[in-house]
Specification:
The chain is an alpha/beta fold. The chain contains 9 helices and 8 strands.
Length: 229
Amino acid sequence: MPFSFQERLSSIQARINAACQRCGRNPSEIVLLPVSKTFDAPIVREAVAAGLHRFGENRVQEVRDKAPLLEDLSIEWVLIGHLQTNKAKDAAQLVGEVQSLDRLSLAEALDKRLTKLGKTLSVLIQVKTSPEPSKFGLEPTELLRFLEQLKDYPTLRPAGLMTLAIHSDDEAAVRSCFRTLRELRDQAVQAGHHTVQRLSMGMSGDFEWAIEEGSTEVRIGSLLFGERG
């Protein structure tokens, strides 16, 4: 792995470009979301100096700890980890987007707090495309009904779907998870949910497959920041 942050970033961008070339896509369609979970504020500061301004975090608590140390910078925090309903209040206040909305009780809790704050929030609906019991997300068959129900929560702005593929070396199995999400997105748009365009799928170990299957946003952590302790 290249040594400097800028070299690692350039290497990932080159791999994104190559994946796009293989499947006939424009690299400008792909957003890189750096996942800064467990990495401390000085490392995030280095990433901002390299031109990055949105960062994915798994836990609201970690955003609460880091944000004050970086308040002189223009940063948007994106929550990509499972969000407990009792943490919705903090999430509404601290993050610019939640990519792990997976149940109505959470939508209700977020909407209630956002209404008090006079804010709206971009959300991605997390869908469970892997059979692993450890993974969170809506069942695929529940998506269209869930999108209809979200209309009752006007502070939430559904912008797309998110998934975590099966943790496996089986390329076909991983690709199947990504393909399922793309097909669900297309069904949602066809059903009239035209804002649900984005597909957040693909991480350090499988992002090239995700791009080839239609991802619009890849969540990269260790490949960009280095191995976690």
